[in-house]
Amino acid sequence: MGEPARWQERVEEFVLGQVGDPHGRVLEVGCGAGELAQALARAGHSVTAIDPRAPEGPIFRRVRIEEFSDPGPFDYVVASQSLHHVEDLGRALEKVTNLLRAGGALIVVERARGGERGGRDHGDHADHAEAHFAGWAEEGFHDSRRMRDELGRRFVERHFEWVPYLYPDLDEGTSEADESAAIEAGTINATGFLCVGTAC
User: For residue 181, what are the domain limits?
Assistant: First the structure.
């Protein structure tokens, strides 16, 4: 299995572990090509997956969260690598809050812009991180601090962890274990995070 496929597998494992037993109603915001949505559907969940470029299929809708009209409620909302480029983050998260049932959870898989966590960044990994995240501010992308601030205003954080993120995009000789070891050694910062919260 290649590292990009391993990353996708890790995301699916995390999200499926959070949603638990089948038959929950799940909304995925920013579903991209739909791999995660399809994994959730295969696991027995009732899935609606939205993205302006969503693929064809009964579970997919080509719409942004701001224009999504389903009244809900959903048991879970999943946002995997999508919140950083939502145009109006506060408005989008308010919409998510209104779509969740009481006690429902928002599950976030995201990335930080290079260097946001502080600490020592040097070497090839750090150079790749800077290149990877170059231009975020100019493109209007939100950094992890902004995302966590906005999430904290609306959700009680039940889970948060920094995770390796860059390894799928590095050369074929760099594995998740290599990136994890560099993070543990303090050579680089983790640039991915997983977060689960319930509405305040």
Answer: 3-199
